[in-house]
Amino acid sequence: MWIAGAGMTRFGRRDETLPDLMAEAALSALADAMIEQPDGLVVAAMNPEEFTGAGNYGSLINTHLGLSHVPSLRVETATSSGVAAVYSAFAAIASGLHKTVLVVGGEKMSHVPTPRVSEIIGRSIDPHERSYGTTMPALAGLITRAAMHRRGLTLREISQVAVKNHANGTRNPLAHFQEAVTLEAVMESRFVADPLRLFHCCPISDGAAAIVMTSEPAEVRIAGIGQGTDTIAMRYRSDLTAFVATQTAAQAAYKMAGFGPERVEVAEIHDAFAPFEIISLEDTGLIPPGKAGRATLEGETALDGRLPINTSGGLKARGHPLAGTGIAQIVELCWQLRGMAAGRQVHAQVALAHSIGGLATNNWVTLLEARR
Amino acid sequence: MWIAGAGMTRFGRRDETLPDLMAEAALSALADAMIEQPDGLVVAAMNPEEFTGAGNYGSLINTHLGLSHVPSLRVETATSSGVAAVYSAFAAIASGLHKTVLVVGGEKMSHVPTPRVSEIIGRSIDPHERSYGTTMPALAGLITRAAMHRRGLTLREISQVAVKNHANGTRNPLAHFQEAVTLEAVMESRFVADPLRLFHCCPISDGAAAIVMTSEPAEVRIAGIGQGTDTIAMRYRSDLTAFVATQTAAQAAYKMAGFGPERVEVAEIHDAFAPFEIISLEDTGLIPPGKAGRATLEGETALDGRLPINTSGGLKARGHPLAGTGIAQIVELCWQLRGMAAGRQVHAQVALAHSIGGLATNNWVTLLEARR
Predict the structure, then answer these.
(1) CATH number of the domain at A2-112+205-213, out of 3.30.420.270, 3.40.47.10, 3.30.70.100, 3.40.50.360?
(2) Would the pLDDT of A372 be above 90?
(3) ipTM > 0.90?
(4) Which of A345, B100, B121, B174 has the fewest other C-beta atoms within 10 Å?
(5) CA nearest to A110, candidates A9, A250, A225
(6) Which of B59, B125, B222, B234 to mutate to test the interface with A (most CBs of A within 10 A)?
(7) Taking CB atoms and an 8 Å limit, are A47 and B50 in contact across chains?
(8) Could you tell me the pTM of the whole model?
């Protein structure tokens, strides 16, 4: 399975409509792939009805692209919807039902008041737990506190994730935030959900990303893709400080690829909250258990480190337009593998993308490899 | 590709939550298939966020079923979402990524005021056309008027669809409506969107349906499945009186199956509005162009006719819980092919299911065959 083209919009506050953002990303990916007509379309959007007032996005987008005759589906797994769409396209092509599938995902929400955005995204939390007022940042705060207590994670380590990702964002012209932040600024920003502060949390971003997947060899190969799930209710989990859904997804992806984390040279990790990058580096096996915090602090995951993580700026600095994010991670890694990441280019043949859906209920790991 | 088990809830006004309805259907299908653990789950729901206030349905349902470790996705193509989920499962199994996939779809909306339901469902209409106040019944009325003018369809023919489907509903204990209606009652019911009257329109129903799909031979085979799409905007279509999306879907399904409409002996047709049954009988090739109205009036599509259509009662009488409908059609046909449709059993080896998404923007045709 190959990726023949990749494209994305600038992330951030955008005035365009979601269909226009998706079209910008999709047309860019189609042009990159040098094809005009995919024979399938998979659209990812998490909450387009609530945010944009329109539904039926599969049909809305194929018509908007001038591809109304191209079979189209919408796929959703909360914040990992983008990769769920990639997986659907993977299955559609691997089954022989389709040959070339355009996958596009995105979200438009910066025009919606923040409390309403928070409420809508919060619907991906277990309804019983939500009935007590739980929000995504509140649960992330709970997990962070538990990880600090049980795994010795420190606030400096967590904060360094944000510093690093903002530094990477300064090198990405498509990133939502392109300004550096200091460790002090992160650690002194206002509380969102103790111990998490504002600069530990990703912003509310608009944007879209797209790839063209094909059965014909191209520059980037999808070597493996794996899904992992866990209970939507946090209270049913035995451990809050690691994500079983990531561990399962990583195992499945490595199994399909036939290699393990040792071959990965660059990765995009779902840092919706800064501590999740550290937790996920360990869940994916990229860094041994208990070592990712220190590795971050020591610069191992920086752009010039041993294992650059979130060269795009991550969710923290590139931004997190929900269903756009999982695809944007893959776009960034395609550019890295193809030597097109000007200003932040690293040396890599193998890359890993990691996406979290909901509060780690539906996660994905994708392994990409440059054509040799 | 095989269907190893099928199940559904009673459709109608239900007090249970959507997860409970989905669980009822899913557990029934799993029991029928005599398996406990599928290795994949595809959930179909059209507007669960708006109707139920909860999201992340892939994870919500796998957790609710006690299958939180089973990879789960949500798929949506408006009112045909149920079959889109079947197609996703088909691809997942045909690709070798999964072996046994549970597909469950449904909707819970009878608790929501009707104008709000109408507005939410209306979001699957092109936003520009919707900005002029268009609703689904309004567009259906427009299409019906055009079909009467250009194709000579009569109100008696259209009304007979409702009479027949209500008659079938009296024989289906799971149907929303189990009362017969007379031609006069249909033709004199109040206007919804001229020329459509109340009894030409399907009700607002709650309910869920599920099937278990597998690579292992079972009693019912999916011989073919095809998708067809068309512009979301009605104003871009050259003809309002036939649905290109159905024609394309049927061609694809027949091509995969290797046979044509002549082998079909029973069918479930998407009669959200009664005239759509007549239009769709011709679009699927089951009845020659211009003949389906008269065939209906003459009883050819009745339970004891040459080609029984909507033995379940159809959307009109069985009910139409949006994403549940496409799967419920397949459930009914599985029961027919397995000789389990007590009280309304017909003789058939080959069956066709036809589902419309939005205003015929994303349609599906599925061909089922009894194991020989």
Answers:
(1) 3.40.47.10
(2) no
(3) yes
(4) A345
(5) A9
(6) B59
(7) no
(8) 0.98
